[in-house]
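Hi R.,

Here's the chain you asked about this morning:
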Amino acid sequence: MSPTGQTRLAAVIGDPVRHSLSPTLMNAAFGATGLDWSYVALEVAAMQLPDALAGVRALGISGLSVTMPHKESAAACCDRLSPTAERLGAVNCIVNNGGVLTGHNTDGDGFIRSLRHGFAFEPANKRCVVIGAGGAARSIVLALADAGASEIVVVNRTLGRAERTAALAGDRGEVVALDGAHSDLVDADLIVNATSIGMGEPAASDVPFDASVLHDGQTLVDIVYKPLETPLLATARLRGVSVANGVAMLAHQAAVQFELWTGVDAPIDVMLASVADQLG
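And here is the predicted structure, written out as tokens:
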């Protein structure tokens, strides 16, 4: 659909951002639903973020996706925060309602939706292990806790960061050093690699833990999506594990943003197909 005088604008901001798949996802969704919206990528340096958000208000840009390195700084610049964004101290989505900017964090909701859509996996009463303690891991841990997981073990080389991440799960959160995680990995119903290990052009040895502990009946998600098949996923698949890369989480968190901006159900199958086409 070509832009008109009525077209509403949304954008992703970050630095760098030209590699983003978000324009592909969002414009596919707008096209499928017939909404007169358009979505672009805008590269914004860290020092320019306050000016950029002032521009959002002045220009009436309806919604923003926020990526690195702005997620925490953008939270501080919003007028309001959703409960999840406030607990995480980071936003990846902003809704502009008449100049009032409300920050949301859709990563965790997108992750849970991807589990339910892709595996019919319900986190309630499940034992979960999350590898990593960065922003993505924090969102996932909080979402798993809110979804009723019985145990959430955070495995990370830096225990201080792991403790802060596990604290989001309250008394169901635990911290384990990487070299002591064997039994937790064996017993887990769900394992999530929330690190960047395996990204790019990995060697066969680029896995975040000893994958020989994996077995049939487990579910594993690697949030990396470039490449689509990481060494961890390849090994897990051979061991009978149900596996998924990061494409579904990417699409589902974008779907939550789409719904926050438009109030329309996101066409998730169209969004997933658009990313599959883009990634080949």
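One quick note: The chain has two domains: 8-105+251-279, 108-245.

Cheers,
M.
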